[in-house]
Amino acid sequence: MSDSGDSDFAWRYNEYFDIVHADTPALIDEVYRLRYQVYCLEHPFENAAEHSDGRERDEDDDRSVYTLLVHRQTGDFAGTARAILPKDVQRRPLPIHRILASQNGGLTNRFPAHSTAEISRFAVSKEFRRRRGEERYADANVSGAAPTLPTERQMIPYITFGLIRGIVEMCREHEISHISAVMEPPLIRILGRFGLHFEAIGVLVEFHGMRQPCVASIADLVERNRAEGTLLWQYTGKYAAGL
Fold this sequence. Notes:
Blueprint: H1 8-16, E1 17-21, H2 25-42, E2 64-71, E3 77-84, H3 95-101, E4 116-124, H4 126-131, H5 152-155, H6 160-173, E5 178-183, H7 185-193, E6 199-200, E7 205-206, E8 210-217, H8 218-228, H9 231-240
Parallel strand pairs: 4-5
Antiparallel strand pairs: 1-2, 2-3, 3-4, 5-8, 6-8, 7-8
Helix pairs in contact: 1-9, 6-9, 8-9
């Protein structure tokens, strides 16, 4: 298996995009601005009138960590994601715990509460894609193989790889063993094509459309991608190796 540092794909990706941890007030403000762009304007899941300052926040941001995807050429922030950490989880369950409690409280016993984070607000701006000449949704039409020595435009369908790497790094830093999410079924299938296989927990729920609660062991995800030598492993392998 090629080391990620030797991968043409990884080298090309890093040529065009960078990942930063949003750990300063200024960078966290950029996270909220980008979320407003995506979740209040491009996909109006949230009411823009409730965020009059042009920043989208919610009650879980005080226990979250964030990653930002940066376009190197322009310095534009193209995407963001957060991990809601299991801080004081007994008093403040993760959103997925609240959803599963309404279905069957026993389902939450299938993953460890104190080392499970919830991934949410995973977004790449449509406006950024449009400016770069790519309007397809979130890698919907790509497979697990990348073109040889891809151009920037050919790389954009794989843009979420950077956010995945950011999540891996944050999980390693905070000793997270499992990640959970409430995702659209098409996104679950897309992630599966890249080697990220989540286990469905419970049934579909209505939340801005139908969503599936799901969970995955990070160690299992890393080992499967390592064994299969996936494209995602070529890019994230050295960052995941410490998990």
